UniProtKB/TrEMBL annotation:
CDD domains: SPFH_prohibitin. Gene3D superfamilies: Band 7 domain. It is found in: Membrane. GO terms for cellular component: membrane. The chain crosses the membrane at residues 12-29. It is a single-pass membrane protein. It holds the Pfam family Band_7. Residues 30-194 form the Band domain. It comes from Polaribacter aestuariivivens. This is Prohibitin family protein. Keywords: Membrane, Transmembrane, Transmembrane helix.
């Protein structure tokens, strides 16, 4: 004979409590948002006017009404790298790669998303960068793009992008042109020309240096010649005799043994005979 299992009866109040607790946990999980480091958030009011532009929420834990949604975006400085084909001033196609540093305005994040959408980089930043790059690169020759004008071009692109994005709640901080790729034949021709120009500058420098050294030596020699001429003109026969006598007197005071013959030397100067 089979035995009956005892029945477990939950009180109706307990079942309702469990259901309420589960619903409360689900509701709470949908009503809490954690915004990470370097991020900001704005509320999308489903039953209201959409994106609330009055307040931007910072990092940390936040409670949101379950019928609303927190839109979280990075608000720290960030960068995007892109590659595009542009035309130089003479119509040559050039492939350019670069990096842009930008930063959304924290206090105006709601206005940025409301007016430009959540994908504001694609909707706002990319078109501004592409238009500025094509406009600026179109002012220069391939040689200028490849060598001498990189810094100038970066600043001009930055200025133009900042002008386009003025009052658009998105700030561009820096533009870096990393690489300019030309057709190989054009690149080789430019590199050859630059090498020849460098060699010419080095030759001119060596030539200028040698010319300056020759001029220096000429001036030095002329100075010595003038000095010798002045010295020779000042050394009369009488002065030489007096200096010879003075030197003889000094030598006669020396302790070394010697014989001085007065008036027997050339020009009447004394002769000194000695073993030292």
């Amino acid at each position: 004979m089979a035995t009956r299992q005892p029945e477990i009866n939950f009180p109706k109040g307990g079942v309702l409590f469990i259901i309420a607790a589960v619903l409360l946990i689900i509701l709470f999980s949908k009503s809490t948002v954690t915004i990470g480091p370097g991020e900001g958030g704005v509320i999308f009011e489903t039953l209201g006017d959409g994106v609330n532009t009055e307040k931007t929420y910072g990092e940390g834990f936040h409670i949101v009404a379950p019928w609303n949604r927190m839109i979280v975006r990075k608000v720290r400085q960030q960068s995007i790298t892109d590659e595009m084909n542009v035309l130089s001033v003479n119509g040559l196609e050039v492939k350019v790669s670069g990096t842009i540093w930008y930063e959304p305005e924290f206090s105006n994040l709601g206005l940025l998303i409301k007016t430009k959408g959540e994908d504001y980089e694609r909707e706002l930043l990319d078109p501004a960068i592409n238009a500025a790059a094509r406009s600026i690169f179109g002012r220069y020759t391939p040689e200028q793009l490849y060598s001498s004008k990189r810094d100038v071009i970066e600043q001009e692109i930055l200025d133009e992008v900042q002008n386009v994005l003025k009052d658009q709640y998105l700030s561009v901080k820096r533009v870096l042109v990393e690489d300019v790729k030309l057709p190989s034949t054009i690149r080789i021709a430019i590199e050859t020309k630059l090498k020849q120009e460098q060699e010419s500058l080095e030759y001119e420098f060596r030539l200028s240096k040698a010319k300056k050294e020759a001029e220096r030596q000429k001036i030095d020699a002329e100075g010595k010649a003038v000095a010798n001429k002045i010295l020779s003109a000042s050394l009369t026969e009488k002065i030489l005799q007096e200096k010879g006598i003075d030197a003889t007197l000094e030598l006669s005071k020396s302790p070394n043994s010697k014989v001085i013959v007065i008036g027997s030397g050339k020009d009447g100067l004394p002769i000194i005979l000695g073993n030292q």
